[in-house]
Amino acid sequence: MNNSARKVVVIGGGPAGLTAGLYVKRAGIDALLLERELPGGQAVFSPLIENFPGFPDGIEGAELMTRIKKQAERFGLEIRTFAAVVRIEGKDRMRKIVLEGDEVGAIAVIVATGRSPRKLGIPGEDEFKGRGISYCATCDAPLFSGKEVLVVGGGDAALEEALHLSRFVRRVILVHRRDELRASSYLEGKARAEPKIEFVLNTELREIKGDQTVRSVVLENNKTGEVSEIEVSGVFFYVGNAPNTDFLKGLADLDDAGYILTDSSLQSSVRGIFAAGDVRANSFKQVILACAEGALAANSAMRYLEEVGEKKAYGSPRA
After folding, report:
1. Residues 178 and 109 in one domain
2. Sign of torsion over alpha carbons 43, 46, 47, 53
3. Are β-strands 214-221 and 203-210 bridged in parallel, bridged antiparallel, or unpaired?
4. Which residues are registered as beta bridge partners of 5?
5. What is the pTM of this model?
6. Catalytic residue chosen out of the listed positions 30, 102, 126, 140
């Protein structure tokens, strides 16, 4: 068992976690980042991020995350991969982070574990992730300019993204498994008034096909059993997301959907445990915001170290 203690442990290696680790290490504080898979988070699956400042021509999500990781490592951040956190024990000054087969102590914890899209479990869903499959129209809509795309879902998010996509693509086919949408009447009215959006109800997506990228989808009408295949260049999923917070249940306060509730300093209901990025209860999920919250959580964690008597733990980060 590894019982070594760190001043700060960051859980999660996406944009928020890597930025938090960068800021903490740049201030000269002993820190460790734990990532259950490989660093980068969901951003690595975006073929092109065009709204991150500093890249006028856009940048591939994987490339952006590689650069942030290298920057954090340049300041000495230790990143431990395939380190899944099972639970956090203790509400006192020193906490124990229990991993699968290991544990580490921490005075301050920054949770940046993000969220995971719910899956349908159909053929092609994993194969074409980042190669025609997207979970963010705001991020990727311009990549499908003039093409036909499929949106899966019937709630507010699905309709909002379908409307956004309609500004770029030739046609949006919105597929929903029920005979009625779950979205607000206002959004439904706007979507039905958009001529580029076609509604296909009582229908489920059964398969995604393609070669290097998505080329077509197989649909099944769940009332008639009729199966059809249509050509599309992209598939946007809006069947919900789940925050990766199982290890916090019973410890920190979560909202009804499982996202971490924080105060203005991004501290959770447990003193010394902070949250940043998509795992936090906020309304806007973007890479730029995740990075900003990672920096704020790091700053707050460093101030917390001072409050609990860790002298010289906090140094004002240079701009």
Report:
1. no
2. negative
3. antiparallel
4. 105
5. 0.74
6. 140
Give the domain range for residue 162: 119-237
Domain contains 123: yes
The yes-or-no verdict on residue 235 having pLDDT over 50 is: yes
Q: Which of 57, 92, 126, 139 is catalytic?
A: 139
Q: Token pair of 17, please?
A: 């976690």
Of 72-86, 164-178, 273-287, the range with the lowest mean pLDDT is: 273-287
Q: Are residues 50 and 107 in the same domain?
A: yes
pLDDT digits (tens, 9 = 90+) for 106-123: 999 999 999 988 888 999
Which residues does residue 123 pair with via DSSP β-bridges, in sequence order? none
* Structure tokens that stand for 93 in this block: 């000054």
Cβ–Cβ < 8 Å for 72, 18: yes
Virtual torsion, Cα 189, 191, 197, 200, nearest 10 deg: -60
* 217 three-class SS: strand
Position 315 in a domain? no
- CA–CA separation, 100 vs 112, rounded Å? 18
Catalytic residue, candidates 136, 179, 211, 246: 136
* Separation of alpha carbons 93 and 78, rounded Å: 22
Statement to judge: residues 18 and 41 lie in one domain: yes
Work out the pLDDT band at 312, boundaries 50, 70, 90. low
| 39 and 62 part of one domain | yes
Q: What is the rounded distance in angstroms from the CA atom of residue 253 to the CA atom of residue 262?
A: 8
Q: How confident is the model at residue 91 (pLDDT cuts 50, 70, 90)?
A: low
Shared-domain flag, residues 83 and 231:
no
Which pLDDT score, from 0 to 100, does residue 262 have? 97
Tell me the residue type at 272: G
pLDDT tens for residues 266-298? 999 999 999 999 999 986 788 999 999 999 999
Is residue 95 assigned to a domain?
Answer: yes
CATH number of the domain where residue 103 is located = 3.50.50.60
Residue 291 a catalytic site member: no
